[in-house]
Backbone:
């Protein structure tokens, strides 16, 4: 898997690479291991939404905010499902038969990163309570705009450019699990 970097979940500028497609370099997602080195605009949105959802899931469990999580997920179900399908499409394109396994690894990686953030930010639960309220207040089909920087809370919550302590431990676990190589892309 490519070891790319976890950046802010703000709007990503897409520079055309060809007349057919735009590409978001995976470096725009500092420290998040992505399955490819270039993402389309739709794929980038799908990754952003999954990163956000991982943050919400960790907060729900570690801050006893399960009902807030359920409310947000229920309210924005259509948008979450659409972006989830797009994310699955990235993994199917890159890994074909191994897509499900690699997608599960990716989601676990995002949850581990969110858990590390939880451990290193003293006001994490208070911040996430505010994020839950703001996300719930977004209009239907408006969650992606919120995730991409619709409010200062979402932007600051997702903008952890400096890897938290322990990020090296995640990298070491990846290496030990044999995930240090880059995938072969057959696009």
Residues:
């Amino acid at each position: 898997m490519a070891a790319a970097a976890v950046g802010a979940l703000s709007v990503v500028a897409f520079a055309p690479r060809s007349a057919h497609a735009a590409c978001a370099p995976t470096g725009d997602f500092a420290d998040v291991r992505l399955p490819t080195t270039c993402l389309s605009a739709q794929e980038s949105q799908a990754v952003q939404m999954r990163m956000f959802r991982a943050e919400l899931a960790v907060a729900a469990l570690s801050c006893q905010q399960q009902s807030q999580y359920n409310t947000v997920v229920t309210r924005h179900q259509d948008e979450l499902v659409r972006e989830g399908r797009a994310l699955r499409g990235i993994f199917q394109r890159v890994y074909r038969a191994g897509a499900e396994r690699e997608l599960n690894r990716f989601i676990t990686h995002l949850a581990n990163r969110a858990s590390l953030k939880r451990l290193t930010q003293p006001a994490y639960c208070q911040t996430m309570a505010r994020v839950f309220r703001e996300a719930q207040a977004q209009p239907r089909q408006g969650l992606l705009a919120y995730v991409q920087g619709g409010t200062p809370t979402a932007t600051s919550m997702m903008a952890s450019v400096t890897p938290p302590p322990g990020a090296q431990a995640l990298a070491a676990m990846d290496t030990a699990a044999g995930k240090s190589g880059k995938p072969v892309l057959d696009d």
User: Anything to note?
Assistant: The chain has a mean pLDDT of 75.
